[in-house]
Structure formats: C-alpha cells, structure tokens
Design a protein that fits this description.
With about 120 residues, the protein is of the alpha/beta class. About 35% of the residues lie in helices and about 25% in strands.
C-alpha cells in the first residue's frame, strides 16, 4: 500500500494549479480530493482520483463528518493549500477524531516538502 494524498480543493481556482502539480510530482498510492460538486465538475486531471464531496454551505459538523467518512487507512499526506478556513478546520478535526497521523505536504521551488 502506497502513500495516500488527501487534498482540499476549494472553489477558488487560484490554488488548483498547485494541487495539480503536487499530484503530478509524486507517485501516490491513492489520491483523495475533498471538494464540492462544482469542484469535481471543473477540476480536470489525467490521473484517477477519489472524491469526498462536501457541501461547503453546511455546518462545520456536517462537513467534518463528510470528510471523516473518506479518510483512508494508508500513510497519509495532507495538502490544505486550497480551500477555506472552515474546510481546513473540518479536515484537521476529522483527522484528529480518527486518530490519524499525517504529514503536511507542499510543493516548493525545491520540490515536494513534508512537515
């Protein structure tokens, strides 16, 4: 089982390029994108991805539970470069409640970095 990437994909397209490059830069065992139905319809990628569809207008608890249901069992890298504060908090709370360890991942000028 390889490393899984879970990345938020907000409605602002400005950060989508970063997420796309991060996906292309590494070999991921699984790729899980968390976003709205609109994000899924408008984000094109040449790799197989799984989607956790959230209603970003729903309450924090609802968004957290939607995300929690999609957290994989594999070693996990998390990208929160995209998305809103509520989505970031919901993802982090879901990971904490699931007792899931993870590393934050970001693409920099020097390549992929993990924290």
């Amino acid at each position: 089982m390889g490393k899984a990437l879970i990345a938020l994909l907000g409605i602002g397209k400005g950060t989508w390029g970063h997420v796309g490059r991060l996906i292309a830069e590494e070999e991921w065992g699984r790729i899980i994108l968390v976003g709205s139905e609109w994000s899924k319809e408008n984000f094109s990628l040449q790799k197989d991805v799984e989607w956790v569809i959230i209603n970003n207008r729903a309450s924090f608890e609802v968004v957290k539970e939607e995300i929690k249901a999609g957290i994989p069992k594999e070693e996990l890298a998390v990208s929160i470069i995209s998305g809103s504060g509520k989505e970031h908090m919901a993802l982090l709370a879901a990971l904490k409640e699931s007792k899931k360890t993870f590393k934050l991942v970001v693409l920099t000028g020097e390549g992929t970095k993990y924290y």
